[in-house]
Protein 1
Amino acid sequence: MARGIPAYALGGLIILVGFIASLTLILSIPSPLTTVTGYLNMTANAYLGFGSNLLVAIGQNNFNFPITRVSIYIPRTGTNITLSGEIPSGSYFLLMIYQGLNNTVIVSPGLSVTGNPGNLANLTKSGVAYSLNATAVVYDVVKRGLFQLTTQDSGVVCAISVITNVSRPIIGVYIFQMAPMGGTEVTGFNLVSLGQVIGEVRCNVSEPIPVLPGEPTYFAINISSINGTLEPLGIWYTCNATPTTSLPSLLYLNLALKYVYTYNNIVIRREDWFPVYIIPMQLSNT
């Protein structure tokens, strides 16, 4: 003769099922402690050269949680790039896309890059703003933003200079040649502060710094010393003063590059100024 479930066991089972259902409901409700707030900030500029173009995008995570993925889409160029890696709250990220006649170089320090760089040659007008769509993934929450990409003419070279750690006064410099032929040699550089009080430090190099089309030339300057070595090039430099103690401020710092561009019988000697961006990053101590 079959025996039924005792009343006390059935009651306990009902209580257990109810508890599990209640627990599932509670876990499905977003906790105020994990609510994503804030926004993504981004500026983007395209430098139009003599057959080569450079896109530079600088973003900041103003969310209360790290960003794990950022996707950037530019309808005009077909650019569809995804940056992967942890971008902590308050930190910046940098994306540079350089396109020559036959090659594309993508640089994003500390992040992995996938996707389609598009065709920057479609940016045919300077002084024009194009739309840029960005999607950030923050704590598995998708946040979208619409930004502007502005264009401007470039000289023979374009330098992107960044300070990524304010506690270590090192300037990382990426120099791109914006002409697809010939070559450039940087013969010296100055650091100029353009705040309320203007200050300038002049620096010489032991040998010219070569810059060629196709790949950027990168070096780091330790501006806490009057002299040192440009890493990783191994070129010695010396300045007439220590930049960090001689310049009134690093907030309005500019890098002036002295260079000579040569192509066949064409020789151009120039000194161009470029802003130094202060963009603290997570991997700034590397």
Protein 2
Amino acid sequence: MSRVRSQDTKPELIVRKFLHAHGFRNAGSIRYKLHDKKLPGTPNIALPKYKTVIFVHGKNRPLDS
């Protein structure tokens, strides 16, 4: 159980790379926050400017299993 991660899973990294490629940055003009504990449910990604949160539900295992 110690290897089960709650952050930086492969599906989450794919979503973050997509956002980064489309102009969203963790630090920059259009910011997003990671794992904001102030929000209910602790969303994976929060976009404060747009008042939007993204929950990424995925498993940390290969797709072909």
Protein 3
Amino acid sequence: MSHPTHDMKGGALAPDHLIKMANQIGSFFETMPDRAQALVDIGSHIKRYWEPRMRRSLLQYVDQQDGVELKDIVLEALRVHREAVL
């Protein structure tokens, strides 16, 4: 039995769990008074604590589905700081 976050096509991770985790990170950082710093911190957190495959899968979701289920602050952080997240 495969883990529910794994997609059987090419080993990419299914986005549902990643979206939930990214939105939880966004909920924490959106309380910061300095939005620009919050965007940097979201990207830094994802870069520091997520394995590369998770980061690539989340960015692939953003590219293919416009990140429709992500909180606005998370989507903005990923778009503005994409290269830093990779």
Protein 4
Amino acid sequence: MGIAPVWEQPPGGRMTYGFEASDRHEPPGTVRVHPSPPAPEHPKDAEPVNAAPPPPVRAPELPAARGPITTLLFERLVRPPHRFGLFSLPLMSFPARFAGPVLMDEDVQLALFVCYELHYQGFRGVDERWEWNLSLLEVREILETRFEEGLARAVPCPPVPRPQDTRRALAELVSAAEGPDLSVFLQRQADLAQFREFVAHRSIYHLKEADPHTWGIPRLRDRPKAALVEIQSDEYGGGRAERMHSALFRTTMRGLGMDDSYGAYLERVPAVTLAISNAMSLFGLHRRHLGALLGHLAAFEMTSSVPNGYYSRGVRRLGGDEETARFYDEHVQADAVHEQIAAHDLCGGFAAQYPARAGDVLYGAACCLTLDRLFAEHVMGSWHAGVSSLREAGATTGS
């Protein structure tokens, strides 16, 4: 089964790599990312004068509701912003609604995701003033409280390290993580339909890659702030739009014959996929969760490089070309660097500044690892059962 061709990308060199270990007390041989290659001397060399303008940016449409909460919430959002009582939604009047595992609750996770998405790209037909509507923020607070309770039940709280031991504690936490090896399966056994499913799941985050963690930049100071800016600069392509990781992921999606528009697969992904994104937004949008946000990023980077090598080999095994695999290739190298910066300069530096919050860093990392395990269990369990890991479009809660 063939793979649809990708659109051509502008020519350009790959990232160059080097290091100065003495600057950050890193082990000899640590690879560091230097800025992307300089732009062509003449802008016209980079893009033909008669090149077609980029298509207009369009926000995604609201997805179909998955239960009573999203049904009533979406009915509100398509109207002009207004105040409404909490008892008009089944949040307060039906507390038993939250009796089940919240991390897997389709209705709750989608409602929370939509509330958060108003701080990113929003939705077509939803007034932008809803972003800071007081009634909606009250709804979001209730959903967040339930989500945080669900995380606390699912995620064992790691021992609080001494600030100077934060980097080591992160490494030990990552090395002890368990779960099905989804990346190896994708490398060796997955068929094209399964690989596309995996990409559809990941598109919910990767099409806005780095955005949730960027909320942390204005909340940091000194060395940790510089470290996060360094990581995020690479994520955003060093100022080159075509090198942004979200843009590279769109190329991967096109190479696999998939719809690369923002939010295209929101209708299909299950609660556990939404919970991964919701945890990032929860940590990013609340200053009290800054330590958890940084720990989450560190765990994300520390578990990225090796799996992305497997994904790259998997997509090539299925017929993908260099452009289709480039997103994964970039992460093999870049994230090997980012994990050092995130663990040492970012998290280690933050724990040194705020010793009482070192435990928050470890908790955020544990949340990242736990949600990733739950996601892998869902995907692999579905495939072993011979069914899709995605939802049927328009399915309601429990489907």
